[in-house]
Design a protein that fits this description.
The chain is of the alpha+beta class and 254 residues long. It has eight helices and twelve strands.
């Protein structure tokens, strides 16, 4: 029986929809499921919400669920023994959390903004993967996309300068935002940044001052326009890709 976590904010309760109307349906792990398969998933799913700054799961914790991120943004971080922390991943709507077959979380997962997750009890979900090829196939696709993104991020951190890093992050967010709204990432785009400047600095391995300076530089050169603290307008997406050091025909994964 599907249930809703009692901690859900009223506005999030009101926004919950049936699977067929879900805002991430076309990109989530259930994207290829037929109606009967969605009904089976519905019987093992539940919703959970987290406020910005809350930890979803700690590294090493036992996980009895896997989940799709419905709304909001979360980060994956790894902490070393001496307390140093590195952000190793960014979770956006439709991204998958957890790994079937693994009992414990490999990373800390923290809500950067208010987050809503569609969770599946792990054991029934693993059993469904065996019976339902559509789920396994889609999860494989998502895993390979995540691998491509990780390789791209290795290039970004290892070889790109500060300006290229900022432009690359903006391009990644712009692509995902366009994909969620069933649009192509081209021409003029607008988006809301899911990260604060401080979080961007942590993720990119830069100082806060460098992030602010490079954002101002991109604005001054007409690559982006800024409205408030988070809203960004990209007048020409190809120009942004040039600043990121990527070609305009798809150098970054969606």
């Amino acid at each position: 029986m599907t249930y809703i976590n009692r901690m859900l904010a009223p506005e999030l309760k009101d926004s919950l929809q049936e699977c067929v109307d879900c805002p991430i349906r076309h990109r989530a792990v259930c994207a290829r499921c037929e109606s009967e398969e969605l009904d089976a998933l519905d019987r093992v799913k539940y919703y959970r919400s987290f406020q910005a700054g809350q930890t979803v799961v700690w590294s090493g914790d036992r996980m009895d669920f896997v989940a799709s991120l419905v709304s909001g943004v979360a980060t994956l971080t790894q902490t070393l023994e001496d307390g140093r922390t590195q952000m190793v991943g960014l979770l956006l709507p439709s991204d998958f959390i957890g790994r079937p077959g693994r009992d414990r979380a490999p990373y800390n997962v923290t809500a950067t903004t208010d987050v809503l997750m569609c969770c599946f009890r792990k054991k029934p979900f693993e059993e469904m993967m065996v019976r339902t090829p559509h789920i396994g196939q889609r999860l494989l696709e998502m895993t390979l996309d995540e691998l491509d993104s990780a390789r791209e991020w290795m290039l970004l951190l290892g070889r790109k300068n500060a300006r290229e890093k900022i432009a690359s992050l903006l391009a990644i967010v712009a692509r995902r935002d366009a994909a969620m709204h069933l649009r192509k990432a081209k021409g003029k785009l607008s988006l809301d940044l899911p990260l604060t400047r401080e979080a961007m600095a942590d993720y990119l391995g830069l100082t806060l001052e460098t992030v602010s300076r490079q954002m101002s530089s991109l604005k001054r050169d007409g690559v982006i326009e800024l409205q408030g603290k988070r809203h960004v307008i990209v007048p020409d997406f190809d120009r942004l890709l040039e600043e990121a050091g990527d070609d305009s025909d798809g150098g970054l994964p969606e």
